[in-house]
MarR family winged helix-turn-helix transcriptional regulator
Amino acid sequence: MAARPIPLGNLLSAATRTLVARLDSGLADAGFDDLRAAHAPVLQAIDGEGSRMTDLADRAAMTKQAMRELVVHLQERGYVEVVRHPEDGRAKLVMLTGRGWRAIDAGVGIIDTFDGWLDGAIGQGEVQKLRVTLQRIIDHHAEERIPAR
């Protein structure tokens, strides 16, 4: 009997852990040792002029409570600030601080370096095929309208 292939979910998870380890290490080396890859969905979801907490939660596919906890964590470390919405005094906006923008820039550089490493490891053509395939999976999931939990 042939050995069962490694499930794709396991392979995707292992590949993600590789990226996360490189991102966490690179952020620490860049002076952001209190920031982790897990914070990326929050930081990436913030618009340049700030974003409402509910919008951030929706964009990151998180609960409002989980998003609030992450925002407080990032605020305490100086990456974001929470201010009153200029047009709706009841609402608050989450905005990146200078430190937050610098962390974003560092993260982009780390991701670019990872992409270059991946090109060298498996070849640019294979990386492009992987991108296309993963995007097809994402698009197919969106078409099925399976809600994220």
Notes: The chain has a mean pLDDT of 91. Residues 118 and 127 are 7 Å apart (CA to CA).
